[in-house]
Design a protein that fits this description.
By secondary structure, the chain is mostly helical. 74% of the residues lie in helices and 0% in strands. The protein starts with a helix and ends in a 6-residue tail after the last helix. The model has no long low-confidence stretch (mean pLDDT 92).
Length: 486
């Protein structure tokens, strides 16, 4: 067992850190390789240990995340943008694959998994500090490297602080010293991130840890949590987040049962916004899920995220439980869940709580079910990855001004992902760049057959046509994006 602990920690840190430094795992190019890799890791662990998910809480954790991914894909059937919903499926598969892989570990690996999450978060902070020292500071637009978003960097630092404080209580002097160094490093990055929400999440995490610890600390934790909740309400009154949430709730009221479809908030925002401000996310995981996927989607998500909380009540590592709660609180006011590398580190913390609570006498679920799930995730993720990489190559060629090459690559991407509309947008822009207006118009029309709610495709069609068709396209584009400027 002693030889296994550092191996699990190292492997977890490598996979989690690799995704986090890839722009936080935000872009489709990351979802495919991450989902495939995690599914293969899960399958390998299931075969090697002949074990798997155990107990009700673990089954809910994995099952609800897998169900949420399936519901995300199904929402394409009623979505206002089927391509957006099918694209979101790739993102949703990453947490499901990560949960399956984490719970294929043994009960004795709980602390090692949490240490892997700590190591990954600390490595991100270390990369960020190195970037700043190299000249990538404030005002460059890249001070939040490598995750690409200051608030996401801040919540990762919070996880590092709380997990580091937990490890600092360990018996070994070397471990305590390393843990305290991680706390200081992550503390510096938290301060540099200037993330008010992350600081609030740190307070929430400490309050939750106090509640889990029990005794007199429990009362203090409850009081701190109440004060923090009141302060958050006061802070966000009149904040631009309130506008995002209002639009999301309005969409939910208009589509109360099924939502507008996964990945569609960006389109809804453009149609309903009162100010020319761009937003692809509602800056709140739960309200956005309700708007896009309805009560069923929200229930699946909440069930999955609540499973580790049930285990946290019995945890002997209250600060680890606090770290998980800190992320859940921060996800309520920001779009950190969309950065799969950040979300996956938090889910690893939650999985470590479930592993710790696993009873030695609990028998694993049937291995065949876990292997089937891992196989399905790997196949779907791999298919999405191929299309996403092809589209990225096409977009790169377009940015380089290589119209003909970009068009050819975009049409290849469209063939690899026939449900997608984005490749046809790139193809239309590329054909226009190459002076082929007829081909540009044809590509725009093919994209609109897949997503008639994408205002950019209507603009592309207007740019490539004349007369009545051009006018109709412009009218439709204005109706989908009345304020323009995006």
């Amino acid at each position: 067992m002693l030889s296994r602990l550092p191996a699990v920690t190292g492997a977890a840190a490598f996979v989690l850190g690799l995704l986090a430094v890839d722009d936080g795992g935000y872009f489709p190019r990351s979802w495919g390789w991450a989902g495939t890799l995690l599914a293969l890791v899960a399958a390998g662990l299931l075969v090697a240990d002949r074990g798997g998910v155990r107990g009700t809480a673990e089954q809910v954790f994995v099952g609800a995340l897998a169900g949420a991914a399936a519901w995300t894909g199904l929402s394409a059937l009623w979505s206002q943008s089927a391509p957006s919903s099918l694209s979101e499926l790739g993102r949703a598969l990453v947490p499901a694959a990560g949960a399956l892989a984490a719970l294929a570990l043994r009960r004795t690996d709980a602390q090692a998994l949490a240490r892997g999450a700590l190591t990954a978060a600390t490595l991100v902070s270390l990369v960020n500090l190195g970037h700043r020292l190299g000249g990538g500071g404030m005002g460059t637009g890249s001070e939040s490297a490598p995750v690409g978003y200051a608030n996401a960097l801040g919540i990762l630092a919070v996880l590092g602080i709380l997990l580091g404080l937990s490890e600092a209580r360990s018996a070994g002097l070397t471990v305590r010293a390393a843990a305290l160094a991680a706390v200081l490093l992550n503390g510096a990055v938290l301060a540099l991130s200037v993330s008010t929400g992350a600081v609030g999440a740190l307070v929430l995490g400490l309050a939750a840890a106090a509640v889990v610890a029990g005794g007199r600390l429990r009362v203090a934790g409850i009081v701190a949590g109440i004060v923090l909740a009141v302060g958050a309400v006061a802070l966000f009154s009149g904040h631009e987040r309130g506008e995002y949430w209002s639009v999301a709730l309005g969409a939910s009221a208009d589509h109360p049962f099924l939502g507008t479809g996964a990945g569609t908030f960006g389109q809804v925002w453009l149609e309903e916004r009162d100010a020319p401000r761009a937003a692809l996310a509602a800056h709140g995981l739960y309200v956005e899920t309700l708007a896009e996927q309805g009560p069923v989607g929200l229930a699946l998500l909440l069930a999955a995220l609540a499973a580790p909380l049930a285990a946290a009540r019995r945890s002997r590592r209250p600060l680890v439980a606090g770290a998980y709660v800190a992320f859940l609180g921060h996800a309520a006011i920001d779009w950190v869940w969309d950065l799969t590398g950040v979300a996956l580190i938090a889910l690893a913390v939650g999985a470590s709580l479930l592993l710790e609570a696993r009873r030695p006498d609990e028998l694993p679920s049937r291995r065949g079910g876990g292997l089937a799930l891992a196989g399905a995730i790997a196949v779907v993720a791999l298919v999405g990855w191929v299309g996403a990489v092809a589209l990225e190559w096409a977009s790169s060629a377009l940015r380089a001004g290589e119209g003909s090459r970009a068009a050819a690559r975009a049409e290849t991407a469209a063939a690899l992902a026939p449900w997608a509309s984005e490749p046809w947008l790139v193809a239309s822009q590329a054909r226009l760049l190459a002076g082929e207006r007829g081909a540009a118009a044809a590509a725009a029309r093919r994209g609109l057959q897949r997503d008639g709610h994408d205002w950019r495709l209507w603009v592309a069609l207007a740019t490539a046509t004349d007369g009545a068709e051009k006018e109709r396209a412009l009218v439709r584009a204005r109706s989908l994006n009345p304020l323009g400027g995006v």
